[in-house]
Amino acid sequence: MTTVHIPFLQTGTLAVGGRLLDDAERSVQSHADRPSSLTKGHRACQGCAEALAARWVMDTAVEASDGKLVVANATGCLEVFSTLYPESAWKPPWIHSLFANAAAVATGIAASLHAQGRDDVRVLAQGGDGGTVDIGLAAVSGMFERNDDVLYVCYDNQGYMNTGVQRSSATPAAARTATTPAVGRSPGQAFGQGKSMVKIAMAHEIPYVASATPADLRDLEHKVRTAMSIRGARYLHVLVPCPVGWGSASSQSIALARAAVQSGIFPVVEARAGELTDVQRIRERADVEEYLRPQARFAHLFKPGGEDALARWRALADANIRRYDLLGERS
Amino acid sequence: MREVLEGSQAVARTVARCRPGVVCAYPISPQTHIVEALSVMARTGELADCEYVNVESEFSAMSVSIGASAGGSRAYTATASQGLLYMAEAVYNAAGMGLPIVMTVANRAVGAPINIWNDHSDAMAMRDSGWLQLFAADNQEAADLHVIAFAVAEELGIPAMVCMDGFVLTHASDVVELPTAAQVDAFLPPYRPTQVLDIRHPTTIGTMAGPESFTETKYLQHLRFLDATGVIESWSERFREAFGREAGGLVARYDPDTLDRDRLAPPASSDDLVVVAMGSVIGTLQAALAPMRAAGIPVRLVGVSSFRPFPGDALREAVGASRHVMVIDRALELGSGGVLTGCVGRALAGTRSRLHSVVAGLGGRPILEASLQEAVRMALDGELGRLEFLDLREGGVPTPTAGATEVAR
């Protein structure tokens, strides 16, 4: 029998729950009576970071709204694995309408609650990268532009995982998907494509935009709480590793999310009214290999001929580090 | 109070008196005047306790309506043509989830070629979406139908389209008597949603249904649609009692001689040619057929008020002993014939009726009284085919004359 040594970190941001902290300072997840808004019994894959992040996000939002939360969900993994009739894994009132319209449905709910004088009830919309960055972008942009009172959360697993791992406009360069195969002279997703939803959201100058990962629970909860303390359109972009789509071990989802941050590939930021207000510095710099190598979708980068793509990946990380001053060199 | 109003204004004011909680708007001709008027009323306070939301597309207009309805509000929007097709996915979704949204469809052709004028091809494209589709013959009925539509939709948990001909009704000024706010308050029960996103009673709406339950879900939807005929009849009856005029119903009957709407008009007799029509062309037919009746020509008029659910029984009753039916169709099922004719044919299956499909007024082509009269005469003389295109130009699409081409150069 193989054994795995798990270091036990008792304090600080790396410790899930921070059990040695005062009760009031502990994370929502560290409490035995956490809401468990996405409860057990759903059909998510082993190691699904989306399921984990969704529960953490929603539990925090439920607590921040004093239990008065309504959720609109886009079509996608999160919807499919949680609500196969006649079962539902959701504790809050929850609606799924279509793939592209979660933001607009949320607008409708918020408008309805406002018309009924129920501004105490808060609205959260959520979807994957396909439902947000691609097919749902117009509705998301409309909701932002009108500054509707909705927190929109995108769980970005960088592809259409629910339909069998096809490329989305959030798929990173060189990644192999079912529609960007690792064959030919430039295998995988092309370099120079894709879009940054965080920057798009910031360009709308909405009250609050943030990015986060499930590798840092306290940061994620902090951002949800901050978002819930604000009225108007808010956007949270959460990177969620997908063992099936990324070709990674299900035990590595959190490690990969952390490597994405520590290598500079996924900047963890906060912005208000279009201005960047906070950037999480890299604590222990990781090489991009630490992020890429455990993922089968990047296997071709580590074969002869992959050197060029690997160099371009390092350049991407360096560009992020410069742009967001992730090493704190300018401050 | 009788007043002269544009059709869109009449509809907008009536909708406001139905007290919607959320009105969602995206502009498209010929529906724009309705949502423009509602935006003014939302600002002046005439439309009270209502959120008016300007969105970025029809897809979002219907999606916001879905959220609003599920959130517990009476929700309204309006669209037409390309807009209706752009929101098609959400139209089906609203019906599947049983959300009683009311939407005005200002009927307009669907491109290409792009065309902003009136026919029924937009609504017909949504005929199996699971919505009720109620057609207005004139502006008075267009206004009245909205009051009935909210009542019927909310009792059934089925969304309802009120279809009114674009421009012909929406932009035409006519004498109308609007339902007053007091009358509507007395008639229309407050919105009590059957399913709602309620924090006190959390529910999951919009789950996935697999092969083991999808058929049954659709069957239940079908049964509810069968119930709809009775509910439409009942609310239309109550409307007549409360407002003293006829609106809605399943099938409109017309007096054989005056051609006025008359629910007590006798069924057609075996000698009669029955003209079946839907929408504003009924008004043209009333004018065209009255002198023919006066001249002793055996022709009768039957209007289809509810296209969905399609009232097969009521239509058979109105057609009576007649075995000769001509359908005026405002939408074409390519390679087959008129869409309405297909439904009429199914309703009359087994009666061995001779059926003519007269496709008329596509993309706003005026439907002339004289042309209708000629079609009736030809049908009675046995000269009308099973499928005819009214006033079709010989030689196909007109091209510029040589002289015009020279000028253009």
Automatic annotation (TrEMBL), chain A:
Q: What is the lineage of its organism?
A: Bacteria, Bacillati, Actinomycetota, Actinomycetes, Micrococcales
- Ranges for domain Thiamine pyrophosphate enzyme TPP-binding come to 75-238
Superkingdom of origin = Bacteria
Q: Does the keyword Isomerase apply?
A: no
Q: Which PANTHER family match?
A: PYRUVATE SYNTHASE SUBUNIT PORB
What is the name of the protein in this document?
Answer: Thiamine pyrophosphate-dependent enzyme
Q: Which UniProt keywords apply?
A: Oxidoreductase
TrEMBL record, chain B:
Q: Cross-referenced SUPFAM superfamilies, in alphabetical order?
A: Thiamin diphosphate-binding fold (THDP-binding), TK C-terminal domain-like
Gene3D superfamilies referenced in this protein's UniProt entry, alphabetically: 3.40.50.920, 3.40.50.970
Instruction: Mention any Pfam family matching this sequence.
Output: PFOR_II
Keywords recorded for this protein, A-Z:
Oxidoreductase
Describe the location of the Pyruvate:ferredoxin oxidoreductase core domain by residue ranges.
272-367
> Where do the Pyruvate flavodoxin/ferredoxin oxidoreductase pyrimidine binding domain residues begin and end?
16-231
The answer on whether this UniProt entry bears the keyword Oxidoreductase reads yes
Question: Would you identify the family this protein belongs to, as annotated?
Answer: Belongs to the pyruvate:ferredoxin/flavodoxin oxidoreductase family.
Could you tell me what this protein is called? Pyruvate ferredoxin oxidoreductase
Q: Which organism is it from?
A: Demequina litoralis
Query: What lineage does UniProt assign to this protein's organism?
Result: Bacteria, Bacillati, Actinomycetota, Actinomycetes, Micrococcales
